[in-house]
């Protein structure tokens, strides 16, 4: 089904005063708090505003004019809190507007250029938008064409990029009817009937011709009618439009161009027919072509869910000419073993050790032998008998060995440096040693040219901090698997998005000036809302609306509010915020259990189980008797590296009695926005003139060990499924990229070989120092 509405379609004309009032309702105010009721409703108001101007090009153009005026007004008043919401709303309207005059492009471009003098993230957003407006001004409709082509995976030779949205939901949060409504909202097509690839091609041709020719030289309704009657022939015109637009972009980058309008006018005449060409060049109403939502797949994050396998299936099905359909057995054989079997979380190794020799003669009875040689004649019998002993001695069972190479590790390191050059051993800017300033990096400012990848996977996690912890662990295992066998790193560009949702609908907010409490289930979402008003108004508001969807839309969602907001989020959320994944080594009491290596993203809690029930009593008693907290808890030794803004880190060690500690990786206020860990004790340390224990310890490397016989219980990212008991000590440090670890291991191996060849008497000393 193909439908494009003209001016006299379903949407009536909206006045500028009505648009102005709607925009004022969307903008954040200085007195708004992240949990205010009005702030939560702004996401719905923004969605209603875009729906109000849809299917009417005059309304869209009026919205662009009003938004430009409001953006210039906010710039004059230095109202930075309103700049980003206005700019994102404006850019989203520009992409979908049928035709925009050149003077409006110039006004938007001038505003974006002036944002370059503002601090982060305004300068980064202004640079990105100014580049996009400059390209859109020279080649109108190119952003719409590229976005629709990539999101719908339209086959062409001129823009071979493909995108896919994977929505991952926490089953603990979305259980029962809410999960069913969310699944139907995301996976059900937004149109009345599913759109075919030819329908998307018609939209591209219609929008580009209108954006370039305008209402004076293009009759929108006649063009839409001609495209609808064309059938399969529309694909050839789609390919021609793609080639013309991409060639115009290349010419504009070289300072050339000018042939775009003439070529598209010729295509317009061919489409509408030579008879109606003269009449069609007269002014007429344009048709609105709203962007359809991209392809999305909804997944509940179960224990057997594997991101690497999901991306591998999508890549192989998208890169093959025929549909990718294999049985489960063939699929497992093609994609290899599961990630859990390949990479256990508690060991690091680069090869497998077989339990048997691999020789068929040594296999146990009943094992399947290898196929014997076929005899084609009497003359071959002697050769067969002669070779039988040798084959039984030399033939091996089927298998192969994957040996990590220096090339693989260098590819992973290059990928890490392209995304985060200020991090040593970083992986996509999310892990590594400290490099440079202690403030968190925001925006894309890499000095390394990023290699283009034709596939982009946008992973949207919906849930609380628990699903983020699992996502961090899954991403670490993903990089670990790629370090062993490079397959997806240089083919797929990974982008992560987060929508905070928890079971309790009432917002929970920590008080200012205090650390995030474990009661805040969405600490990372609270941080993003604190630093970005646009995220707080449009994205975090979903966390309070999704749990109510089952009441407002019982059974099945009809308005597709969630999928529309997700589409808006992934299209406009262009500036990344980087978070460090931390590595923790957990050692247990006794010698029966081996140490476990884990990762966490937001929070680590360590407590003594038998003392947890009296913590509240101790806090109440400490108000009356200051030294009551000294007799509670167990003695632990702390060894940590204290971080400072000056970069002069100091190694410290102390012993303290406590019932538990909390380690937070996400700051609770802008004043504490540092890229480090903040550790606090569950009770205030005893204050005396001999005590030097700080109430907050900021560090990136810490080791905690129980000196007494009491064991701890460790919980990662507030997830009860990631709880470890009988813990004696933990060691926390920034997680190094597996590619960096592989490079370091191979380099040490080669250096050791050189030492053996040249100075064999120093081999033992080199081994000892490398082990330390």
Provide structural commentary:
The structure is a single chain. The chain is an alpha+beta fold and 772 residues long. Among the domains are: 582-736, Tumour Suppressor Smad4, CATH 2.60.200; 742-771. Helices cover 42% and strands 13% of the residues. The chain contains 27 helices and 14 strands. The strands form two sheets. Strands 7-10-11-12-14-13 form a six-stranded antiparallel barrel. Strands 2-1-3-4 form a four-stranded parallel beta sheet, sandwiched between helices. A hairpin with a 6-residue loop joins strand 13 (712-716) and strand 14. Helix 11 runs antiparallel to helix 12. The longest helix is centred in the last third of the chain and has 21 residues, at 738-758. The chain is elongated and about 90 Å long. It starts with 15 loop residues before the first helix and ends with a helix. 36% of the residues are buried. This is Phosphoinositide-3-kinase regulatory subunit 6. InterPro entries: PIK3R5/6. One of its GO terms (molecular function) is 1-phosphatidylinositol-3-kinase regulator activity. Residues 356-399, 752-772 are annotated as: Disordered. Residues 383-393 have a biased composition (Basic and acidic residues).
């Amino acid at each position: 089904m193909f439908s494009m509405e003209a001016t006299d379609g379903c949407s009536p004309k909206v006045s500028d005063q009505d648009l102005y009032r709607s925009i004022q309702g969307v903008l954040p105010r200085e007195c708004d708090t992240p949990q205010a009721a009005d702030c939560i409703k702004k996401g719905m108001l923004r969605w209603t505003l875009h729906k109000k101007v849809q299917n009417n090009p005059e309304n869209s153009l009026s919205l662009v004019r009003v938004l430009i005026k409001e953006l210039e007004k906010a710039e004059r008043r230095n109202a930075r809190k309103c700049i980003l919401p206005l700019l994102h709303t404006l850019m989203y309207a520009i992409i979908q507007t049928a035709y925009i005059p050149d003077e409006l492009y110039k006004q938007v471009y001038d505003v974006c250029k002036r944002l370059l003098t503002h601090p982060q993230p305004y300068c980064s957003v202004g640079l990105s938008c100014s580049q996009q407006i400059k390209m859109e001004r020279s080649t109108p409709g190119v952003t719409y064409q590229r976005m629709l082509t990539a999101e719908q995976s339209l086959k062409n030779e001129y823009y071979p990029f493909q995108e896919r949205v994977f929505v991952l939901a926490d089953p603990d949060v979305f259980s029962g009817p809410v999960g069913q409504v969310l699944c139907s909202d995301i996976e059900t097509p937004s149109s009345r009937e599913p759109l075919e690839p030819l329908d998307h091609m018609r939209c591209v041709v219609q929008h580009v011709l209108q954006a370039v020719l305008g209402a004076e030289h293009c009759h929108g309704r006649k063009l839409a009618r001609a495209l609808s009657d064309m059938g399969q022939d529309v694909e050839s015109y789609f390919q021609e439009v793609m080639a013309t637009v991409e060639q115009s972009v290349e010419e504009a980058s070289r300072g050339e161009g000018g042939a775009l309008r003439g070529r598209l006018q010729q295509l317009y005449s061919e489409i509408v027919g030579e008879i109606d060409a003269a009449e069609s060049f007269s002014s007429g109403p344009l048709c609105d072509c709203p962007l359809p939502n991209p392809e999305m797949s909804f997944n509940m994050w179960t224990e057997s869910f594997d991101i690497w396998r999901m991306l591998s299936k999508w890549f192989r099905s998208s890169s093959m000419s025929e549909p990718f359909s294999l049985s489960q057995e063939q699929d497992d054989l093609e994609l290899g073993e599961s990630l859990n079997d390949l990479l256990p979380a508690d060991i690091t190794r680069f090869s497998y050790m077989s339990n048997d020799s691999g020789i068929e003669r040594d296999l146990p009875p009943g094992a399947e032998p290898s196929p014997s040689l076929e005899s084609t004649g009497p003359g071959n019998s002697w050769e067969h008998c002669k070779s039988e002993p040798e084959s039984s001695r030399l033939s091996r069972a089927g298998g192969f060995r994957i040996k990590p190479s220096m090339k693989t590790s260098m590819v992973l390191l290059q990928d890490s440096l392209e995304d985060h050059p200020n991090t040593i051993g970083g992986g996509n800017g999310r892990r590594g040693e400290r490099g440079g300033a202690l403030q968190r990096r925001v925006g894309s400012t890499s000095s390394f040219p990023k290699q283009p990848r034709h596939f982009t996977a946008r992973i949207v996690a919906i849930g609380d901090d628990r699903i983020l912890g699992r996502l961090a662990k899954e991403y670490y295992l993903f990089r670990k698997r790629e370090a062993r066998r490079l397959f997806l790193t240089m083919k797929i560009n990974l982008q992560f998005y987060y929508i905070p949702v928890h079971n309790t609908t009432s917002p929970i907010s920590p008080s200012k000036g205090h650390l995030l409490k474990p009661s805040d289930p969405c600490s990372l979402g609270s941080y993003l809302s604190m630093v970005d008003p646009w995220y707080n108004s449009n994205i975090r508001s979903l966390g309070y609306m999704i749990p109510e969807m089952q009441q407002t839309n019982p059974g099945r969602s009809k308005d597709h509010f969630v999928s529309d907001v997700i589409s808006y989020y992934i299209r406009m959320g262009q500036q990344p915020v980087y978070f460090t994944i931390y590595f923790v080594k957990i050692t247990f009491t006794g010698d029966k259990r081996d140490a476990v290596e884990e990762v966490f993203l937001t929070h680590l809690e360590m407590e003594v189980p038998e003392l947890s029930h009296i913590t509240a009593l101790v806090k109440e008693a400490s108000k009356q008797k200051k030294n009551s907290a000294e007799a509670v808890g167990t003695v632990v030794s702390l060894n940590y590296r204290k971080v400072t803004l000056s970069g002069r880190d100091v190694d410290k060690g102390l012993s303290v009695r406590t019932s538990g500690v909390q380690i937070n990786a996400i700051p609770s206020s802008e004043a504490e926005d540092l890229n480090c860990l903040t550790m606090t004790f569950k009770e205030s340390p005893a204050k005396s003139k001999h005590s030097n224990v700080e109430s907050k310890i900021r560090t990136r490397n810490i080791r905690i060990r129980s000196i007494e016989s009491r064991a701890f219980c460790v919980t990662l990212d507030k997830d009860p499924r990631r709880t470890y008991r009988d813990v004696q000590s933990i060691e926390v440090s920034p997680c190094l990229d597996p590619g960096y670890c592989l490079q370091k291991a191979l380099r040490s191996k080669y250096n050791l070989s050189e030492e053996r060849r040249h100075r064999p008497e120093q081999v033992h000393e080199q081994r000892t120092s490398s082990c330390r």
